[in-house]
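thought: fold this chain, then report.
action: predict
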Amino acid sequence: MPPARGAREALPDGAWWRKMQRRLLVRLSSPETVSDAMLVLLSAAAGCVDAVSYLGLGHIFTANMTGNTVLLGLPLGQADWQAALGSSVALVGFIMGVAVRAVIAGRDQKGRAVWPMTVTVTLTVELAVLGAFALGLYLAGGASHTLILLAALAMGLQSTAVRRLGIPGVATTYITGNPDRRDRRGDQQVVPCDLLCRDA
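observation:
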């Protein structure tokens, strides 16, 4: 009679456990698992940057461009140009990050690698920008438009780098979609019009 479904294989004492350990190690070290872990860390980093920006830089979102656009629309409707300036700087910084990623993507190689080299390059540039942001925040001790620009630039880089991985429905920053969608469609031209126009 064949063994019941789900029953352990007949292995010497301890061999079954060692076999399970090897399987787990292979699974944890697979490129897909490492990629998933990196995405979780990137999401956490984006959340931290957004919290620091909102609480320390004058209630400005630098990773959540949808919320930032709302915060931009409110003072514009009230003709409060000074209040609108911070959100505008964040929006410009995010677009700059998308543009820089598009330049880096010019070296992209065709293929379906789990983690392309240009994603690593982009995230390295993001790390340098975030380092400058952290240093500036420490030295300035308060809000400045330069810090808002740096934080948004880093988040624009990260957003489009993650898009390059091609995982449906996965994003580490939150955007309605248009500011970084041009980069996702082939890393071609990046234009501010994408903020206003819906994709056909």
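thought: worth noting. Residues 15-195 form one domain.
final: tokens above.
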